[in-house]
Amino acid sequence: MLDHNGVTRRTFLGGAAALGYLAFKSPAELIAETARGERSHASLVAALSELDDYDALAKLSFNENPYGPPDSVLKAMTVAFKYANRYGYPDGGVTEAIATHHGVKPENVVLGAGSGELLDVMGSAFASNGKKVIGASPSFEYVYAHVSSVRGASITIPLTSDHRQDIPAIIRATTQHYREVGFVYLCNPNNPTGRTVSAREVKQLLDAIPPDVPVLIDEAYFHFVEDPDYATSVPYVLEGRPVLVTRTFSKISALAGMRLGYGIATPDLIAQLRPYISQSISAVVKWGGVAALADTDAQAKVKTVTLALRKKTMAELNALGYATIPSETNFFMVDLKRPVPPVIDAFRAKGVLVGRPFPPLNEHLRVSIGTADEMHRFLVAFTDIMAKPAASGAS
Ligand code: PLP
User: Fold this and answer.
1) How far apart are CA 385 and CA 382, in angstroms?
2) Structural domains of the chain, ranges and CATH numbers in brackets
3) How far apart are CA 92 and CA 100, in angstroms?
4) In whole angstroms, how far apart are CA 12 and each of 246, 295, 341, 345, 382?
5) Which of 63, 139, 142, 196 for a ligand 1 pocket mutation test, highest count of atoms within 8 Å of Cβ?
6) What is residue 24's predicted lDDT score, i.e. its pLDDT?
7) Contact 250 CB / ligand 1 (< 6 Å)
8) Tens digit of each residue's pLDDT (9 = 90 or more) over 46-59
9) Are 336 and 322 in contact (CB under 8 A)?
10) How many CA atoms lie within 13 A of 316 on its CB side?
11) Gyration radius of the chain over CA positions
């Protein structure tokens, strides 16, 4: 799901046919294909061994946390495995812990198997069957893709020339299309640009649009922001506005593969989402989430090292003559001054995964912040790839 593409050894090693976006198959899928006779045993063995290469790649493509969960979280999850065989297990008080963290009531909290589930649920509840979502583009396009899968539609507003979300234009479009609007989507900070919408602009948006239009404010990258003009939108929920603020444990807490996110909203808005929620969160990650919220030291360390590496990498690219978009997240965009797709492929051939293309920013590459070693590999690869003329295919 999401915009996440996997790789096999063939894409890693390069070669004309190999450079496409191949789906990453799990061992179970590979084994099932073999059982159905679609794959020979020898090919199964080869494919399973290819999966090991995944570990060797510098994974700078999905804005993940490269360090993995801290010991406190691993310990809590390990203990929670004793509930693996249960339905009615104690969940560690995850909903209450989130409510306390935000100063809201447990009835203001809705859990999702990743915040992505809640983005889907918002689309299913409010923008299916001809209704529309309004938001910026490029943004987290996953939201618009889900809305279209439930036969809704999107009205997308281009970014400003300095890659900000155009709040006055979003207000105008929402007011103009009021009857068709299912909800407004605001990704803050925005993925893929990394730019924030200020607290003042969020208020401007919420005050200017018709008061019954629901607004989804996606704060997946909240924990990385330093901008003093930025603020969480959770207080608008307490004012009773129809706002869903989503957060994730996938980024700062390094639990992307475990799937846990949540939303903060009024009980009334949550009641409208409930019918679409899958209840597919595991006992293990619920306990991991509680421990992650409590381990503020671990979060602070991830933030410090990530921002230091982001600033260093961006400064080095700037020194090489490549402009970057200011970022408040664990990723950034660099202007390559040439089309991105062949460069992505050239990085893959060097064992470095970077972000997919984000049209219409066709010459901007999105780079997630990995470990110091991964960022070094990125810079070495970048210097080599960009030293060759674009016309040569950058490989
Ligand atoms: N929102 C944004 C802006 C994201 O970039 C992502 C993932 O990359 C998500 C939401 C979904 O994250 P998850 O479902 O892992 O919580």
Assistant:
1) 5
2) 1-56 (no CATH), 71-294 (3.40.640.10)
3) 14
4) 34, 36, 15, 9, 16
5) 142
6) 61
7) yes
8) 776 666 689 999 99
9) yes
10) 12
11) 21
